[in-house]
Specification:
heterodimer, A: alpha+beta, Alpha-Beta Plaits, 2 domains, four-stranded antiparallel β-sheet, 72% helix, elongated, B: Rossmann fold
């Protein structure tokens, strides 16, 4: 057991020494792994941020029910009654046309335009929160409300959120595909790196075999190299994503202020960060293992 | 104990290196394997160390049949041997010390104990003052002795040397012969393949003579 630990500790030390010795080549290898991993991770971060945005801004399913311009107070009251009795309605609020005009005037700097209007072009409206936000249900409610007397138009406010949701799903798929492709690339990079190492250390491997080295002993330094390369690559990817988010967040905050929203790329959680490093370590170890399986047989004197 | 029974070795392509070879080497014995180059000396040693497997017949080392040995057991069989290869097989990218320490690293020695043993082995072959030298800077005779130091550093029970005195002048050959004899005297089984008649005469131990892959009937030595 102690011998076993000593052997592993020694291999790890030798592997780190090897990294230190061939600094340039090692750094380039780490950069390749880091960049390959940073792309999908960055995509994941951006998607997560967008998803968060979509959730906080207007993903509560709402319907806007606009009455006809000539609707009277009684008409509005009858619609109000129907909404009150409707099973699918969670709550609703009434926006009288005068208030709507005032809000419009107050908000987007349209005061001049509003003032120049001769009469109020806005109808009375109800903003309805549905009990069930499913797209089918909202569609049904919309169809139903539309048939009520003096209802001119029913608008589904969640349409853009639904579209964004679909886009995000697509984005997620793209990120997954990207991750798969670059994961394969990482395995390939380690595979090749280890292949070259095995070729340059052919003699040492051969001699070690002849004087009684076991297969695990011969494999160990290469597997360690792969794992350490993966770990460093994972750290590099994490650092790249962190730095990217740091740089982008500055401009994003500015843009967010212009639009009156808080816009910030989310940070990776400690669990996610650990996961990235472990996953990268595992992938590169796998590449090394495949390479060793493939190439050590070729150096077997027996 | 090393025991060959009706061993044949045919290489791919039909070259028959050994034909119906039977002999035993007792523990602590010193045996020479003699014959011209191509007589099958190297193949004989390779069969002992499980570097090659017999085509037929059985090679038994310390009660283990090499022919049926599982792949995973081979390294542990080889650790019983010290091997001195015809072409040294030294590693030129590291110092004499690091060459000799290799077998101890493989077994997993504590580094201080390993260093002690490496120095003892280098001292034994007279290269202690060259532990930091790289093999390329050593003379042919020194390289040979370095290879011997690597073969004995883990104190094997059996020492197999393939043509250890090739391209060495008579005086050096005699020194090397004395070196092997000293290992023999401390209880190591020594098998030396050589076509050097002088060395054979100097060591004056039992010889297995090979000719074209077959054992030439023994004649008693005095």
């Amino acid at each position: 057991m102690r011998t076993w630990l000593t052997q592993h500790a020694r291999t790890l030390a030798a592997t780190l020494a090897r990294f230190a010795r061939s600094r340039m080549a090692s750094l380039l290898n780490i950069a390749v792994i880091g960049i390959a991993l940073a792309l999908p991770v960055g995509g994941y971060v951006i998607l997560g941020t967008l998803q968060h945005l979509a959730r906080t801004h207007g993903s509560t399913p709402q319907l806007s029910v606009f009455l006809a311009l000539d609707a009277s107070g009684d008409d509005a009251a009858s619609v109000r009654d129907r909404l009150k009795r409707h099973a699918s309605v969670l709550k609703f609020s009434f926006v009288p046309r005068d208030q709507a005009l005032r809000e419009l005037k107050a908000s987007a700097g349209l005061a001049d335009v509003v003032d120049s209007l001769q009469h109020n072009p806005l109808p009375d409206a109800f903003v309805v929160d549905a009990r069930d936000g499913g797209a089918g249900n909202l569609q049904n409610m919309r169809e139903e409300f539309r048939k009520w007397p003096k209802v001119a138009h029913v608008q589904l406010d969640t349409a853009w959120a639904t579209r964004l949701d679909a886009l995000l799903r697509l984005g997620k798929l793209v990120v997954l595909l990207l991750a798969a492709a670059l994961g394969i690339a990482m395995v390939a990079v380690t595979f090749n790196t280890i292949r070259l190492q095995i070729l340059t250390q052919r003699e040492e491997i051969e001699v070690s075999r002849l004087i009684g080295a076991t297969d695990p002993f011969i494999r160990r330094p290469f597997l360690y190299y792969g794992a350490v390369l993966g770990a460093f690559g994972g750290l590099a990817a994490w650092a790249l994503v962190w730095a990217g988010a740091y740089v982008l967040n500055h401009s994003l905050t500015e843009i967010g202020q212009i639009y009156g929203a808080s816009l910030n790329l989310r940070r990776l959680t400690p669990e996610e960060s650990t996961g990235i490093v472990l996953f990268s370590t595992w992938l590169c170890w796998l590449g090394a293992w495949l390479s060793v399986q493939q190439h050590l047989v070729a150096v077997d004197p027996a | 104990m090393i025991s060959f029974t009706a061993v044949c070795k045919r290489y791919p392509g039909g070259v028959e290196a050994l034909r119906d070879v039977s002999f035993t080497v007792a523990d602590r014995e010193m045996v020479l394997v003699t014959g011209h180059s191509g007589a099958g000396k190297t193949t004989l040693l390779k069969l002992m160390a499980a570097i090659e497997r017999p085509t037929s017949g059985s090679v038994v080392i310390n009660g283990q049949n090499v022919g049926t040995l599982r792949r995973r057991a081979v390294p542990f069989l080889r650790r019983n041997f010290g091997l001195v290869f015809e072409d040294h097989k030294l590693l030129f990218d590291r110092s004499a010390f690091d060459n000799v320490v290799l077998p101890l690293n493989i077994v997993g020695y504590d580094s201080r104990e390993a260093a002690r043993r490496v120095r003892a082995a280098l001292d034994k072959v007279g290269l202690l003052h060259k532990e930091r030298a790289y093999p390329i800077t050593l003379s042919g005779g020194e390289q040979r002795r370095l290879a011997i130091a690597r073969a004995i550093v883990h104190r094997p029970a059996m020492l197999l040397a393939d043509d250890p005195t090739g391209n060495v002048d008579a005086e050096h050959a005699r020194e090397l012969g004395d070196l092997f004899r000293s290992f023999h005297q401390v209880g190591v089984t020594v098998v030396i393949a050589t076509h050097d008649a002088l060395l054979a005469q100097h060591l004056a131990s039992r010889a297995i003579a090979l000719r074209s892959g077959e054992i030439v009937p023994e004649f008693p030595r005095t």
